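sorry for the late reply, my laptop died twice this morning and i had to redo everyting from scratch. anyway the thing you sent over, i finally got around to it. pasting the sequence first so we're on the same page, its 312 residues, then the predicted structure underneath. double check i copied it right bc i was rushing
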Amino acid sequence: TYSIKNTLQDNPRLERSIQFFNGLSTWIQCMVLSKMTPKQRAEIIHKFLDVAKYLRELQNFNTCLAVIGGISHSALARLSKTMMCLSSEDIKLLTEMTDLLSSNSNYAQYRKNLSECEGFKIPIIGVHLKDIISLHVALQDRLEYDLINFRKLVQLSIIFRTLNNLQVSVPPVQPNNDLINLLTLSLDLSYTEDEIYELSLAREPRSSVSSPDPASRGMHSSETTNDSSSDVYKKKEQVHSPVFADWAAGVSQTIDIQTIQRHVNAMVEAVFTTYDHDRDGYISHTEFEEIAQNFPFIDTFTVLDADQYDRN
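ok and here's the structure:
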């Protein structure tokens, strides 16, 4: 029905898939922007590039696109100080991933790589949805004399058969349910594009000097550049991610109290399973700091429960 009506109504699984895609990209942006210095932000980008590399090895192109889309989003792409702290290897990997997932020539590089994959793989859902929509628009259901358009049926069947075959493939990894529960709430939290971009401007204002701290690049202060940001930064509307999926834009998690409560309960259980190392039923300040690393802006929605040993 999506290809016919071009709406997610009555397609809850597809809607949830898109929500996950957008939520992951947003979470990645927030994780990077939660760090105060360019070097710290570059370290987070490096970690997510490692994640993208592993997703490529798993042949999970859909989630890989969400990760690279988050990293290359305009809110992060404009952070010149941060980008200058990335290693040449990171820049090379980001460029390769961007080229692989680019929409150029109707996703030619992606389609070539997907066709060469064997076994378990997860395609970019949006690309194949667009294929279905294009066929539906370009070819009529019936021809002259009310004859069925078998050419259209054959081409659609090829796409559907490919997608159906993927569903019976066995993933090469086992899910970590504790980790899933730990991250679900973060991926569902909603931040608008404007809010994220404002945070990006707060981290690296347009008027700031374009070079990173000398210490972060092994340079002396005399070697730093004095170029103003007007020569370096592009305006927001001029910076576009080359891979961010436009088909997934505008879909965000609908706030549902019962769903959030269920996720919170699962997250709390996962937190204690993973971080309550001494199994005393309390989370210490040290343990909480480990948790907070994975949840940007956690202090805005969580209050630390003092460890029993901290109580008077």
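The chain has 15 helices and no strands.
thats about all i looked at so far, will dig more tmrw
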